[in-house]
Amino acid sequence: MARPVALPQVVRTRADLRDALAEARRPVGLVTTMGALHEGHASLIRMAHADNATVLVTIFVNPRQFNERSDFEAYPRDEAADVRVCGAAGATMVFIPPVEEVYPDGFQTSVRVGALTEPLEGASRPGHFEGVTTVVAILLTLAGAERAYFGQKDAQQLLVIRRMAADLGISTDIVACPIVREPDGLALSSRNVRLTPQQRAAAPVLRRALSAARARYDAGDRDAEILRATMQVTLAAEPLAAPEYVSCADPATLRELDRLTGPALLSMAVRFGAVRLIDNEPLS
Ligand code: PAF
């Protein structure tokens, strides 16, 4: 018979989180999420569990980082299932605050990172990164963890959070974790459940487009425009895919490259109807 999963302690207020952390064994590993947990999140929690005595997961659908109210409202939510995923992956405690615990009455602070937030996701989603960095700064401060784990699928987010932590003197070590994919190459995302069966069948085109550009790079192509065009051509062959951007950029500054003389980051955002997917491939 399968062993029952030990459910983690659930806390909902800043005060209860502080009390729970005061008793917690160190080091603490933090995994911040917006819920709708999937195998990608579980892999972050398992990595945190392997490195730390205590694993704190936060579940908070952050209204400040959504550009469209409808996207915020449609964001999938299932607290009971999420807590089970946390327990099975090794979380010790889960912080599930209501909005007023994250943004208390009278809240008027925001954290904005500069040039790194302007291209790519920042250009497509004005204000998005300010919402992310504000909430992550709050969660890093409340958790005071030794390490925090973020997925490489959101490559720009990871870069921006690292910059913010360094700039603000937040001592939590920001750990990058590999992208988890379905067998057909689609990167795991909480938004995948909103794809229709036809869109789901079309969505691995992101991975194919990245792989096609990587194949040219591996064959010696160093012209960034050719790599971008290779991704565009692959995406154009899929009628359900509406690309928002494709990029071949410097992985440290995210500025578009002309020629590759060192590492680069291939990335893209593609819409399938109302669902927007992102993916990337580092080249080195
Ligand atoms: O990557 C996410 O799920 C969110 O942007 C994060 C980091 C939890 C902030 O709300």
Over all CA atoms, what is the radius of gyration?
Answer: 19 Å
Topology-level CATH name of the largest domain: Rossmann fold
Instruction: Give the helices and strands as they follow along the chain.
Output: EHEHEHHEHHHEHEHHHEEE
Strand content: 15-25%
- How many H/I helical runs? 11
Q: What can be said about the biggest beta sheet?
A: 6 strands, parallel
Which class of secondary structure composition applies to the elements? Answer: alpha/beta
**How many angstroms separate the termini?**
47 Å
Instruction: Identify the strand order in the major beta sheet.
Output: 1-4-3-2-5-6
CATH class of the largest domain: Alpha Beta
The CATH architecture classification of the largest domain is 3-Layer(aba) Sandwich
Mean pLDDT equals 97
